[in-house]
Design goal:
Helix content of chain B: over 70%
Radius of gyration of chain A: 21 Å
Shape of chain A: globular
Number of strands of chain B: 0
Number of strands of chain A: 10
Shape of chain B: globular
Strand content of chain A: 15-25%
Structural class of chain A: alpha/beta
Distance between the termini of chain B: 47 Å
Helix content of chain A: 25-40%
Largest sheet of chain A: 5 strands, mixed
Order of helices and strands of chain A: HEHEHEHEEHEHHEHEHEEHH
Number of helices of chain B: 12
Oligomer: heterodimer
Largest interface: A-B, 21 and 20 residues
Largest sheet of chain B: none
Amino acid sequence: MKPLVRLFPLALLPLLALLLARPALAEILTVAAASDLKFAMAEVVEQFRTDRPKDRIDVIYGSSGKFFTQIANGAPFDMYFSADIAYPRQLEKQGLTSGTVRPYAFGRIVLWSLDPELAATPMKELPWAPLRRFAIANPRHAPYGMRAQEALEDQGVWAALQPRLVLGENIAHTAQFIDSGAAEAGIVALALVLSPTLKDKGAWTLIPAGWHAPLEQGFVITARAADNALAAAFADYMTSEAARVIMRRYGFVLPGEEK
Amino acid sequence: MSGADWLALITTLQLSAVTTVVLLLLGTPLAWWLARTRRRLAVAVEAVVALPLVLPPTVLGFYMLVALGPHGPIGGVLQALGLHHLAFTFTGLVLASTLYSLPFMVQPLKDAFAAVGPRMLDAAATLRAGPWDRFFHVVVPLARRGFLTAITLTFAHTVGEFGVVLMVGGNIPGETRVLSIAIYDHAEAMDYASAHLLAGGLLVASFLMLFTVYLLNRRYALVHV
């Protein structure tokens, strides 16, 4: 027993070596991105990296509200792509960013269902549609959920749908509820139903932009990445035509192109 | 505390109570069997029972969502029978919690049953006590510490359930929105005052539950034969 106990600290050495062997921070970019970007961002990153294969870009997807809280509490993200520009603006006000907030897209929402008939239901008639569960993202912290709520309120069916709502943690989680068939229909991001993974599943109807406040999306470089050259390069790339082409393909309306 | 938070508290207590009762009924015979059998199969069963201790709750939650949904083995059969699948339902959560809290019921009971030993039972048998009589009048009183620990740990562990509900849940008031989800929700929405209220309350309540168990365990220990 005794000799084993004495040997124990030795077991920690490889661990320590692993920790020290991590590459210097400046070559890595850690990005927190809203879930609606899940597929579009992957393409943008892939294209950005064709000229610089050695750089490492890690993108973590989740609800914009969650990332806001995490960054405000010191989470190690270099860039923050929010689905609601209000969140990064608030970080900027708190002095947690480097440089200003840049708008990158306007998102759109769709009524989506695996059952094409349900997907074609006019929103006003949803309370009478044959569905047990209707999925939206959590309106308390997911921008797409907030806009879904606004659209349902605009059409006067928010209260009637209450008992049937299921709330996803973010818009990708919400899409998963519908994709699994557990919720018969719901409101998700246009960018998701246009993705290769979901585009052949069920059907969707675009929800008029006038039924909700605009989903203006913005990104920002955080204070900790002030000296990260990769962050600055990626920020410029995001506003380049190459990135805009990809974003357009995922149904995003781009700044300067909104009607 | 808001009305929604009260509802989350009630849902949590209901879920924990139902799960504890279900596990008491299922876990007692299972623990008894595990404590007495010499079959090799028991080792595998014990390993399966202990799985929730080491697996991330999201693993369980993921498989429960798949199994309970309309295309899964459980939900699919229910749909075929003309019933509804169990994703996003209280019943679904009870099923998930039963698996999730299984080791917390079975392990203390198994240890307690093993500690009873065969001598008392043999003595009771010579006095013509039948198997049920022996179990309820000899084993149960002697294993009461095990029962107390098992019931409390199962209840408390289910109250603390989070990952499983997050995966299967859908955050539905009165159905799947339990306290841990409500706390997460408040924190995400930056409503720290509400989050503190629920989180602090849960912390104190959990401590009191465990404190009571350990206190009673000591008391019983003093008069233990």
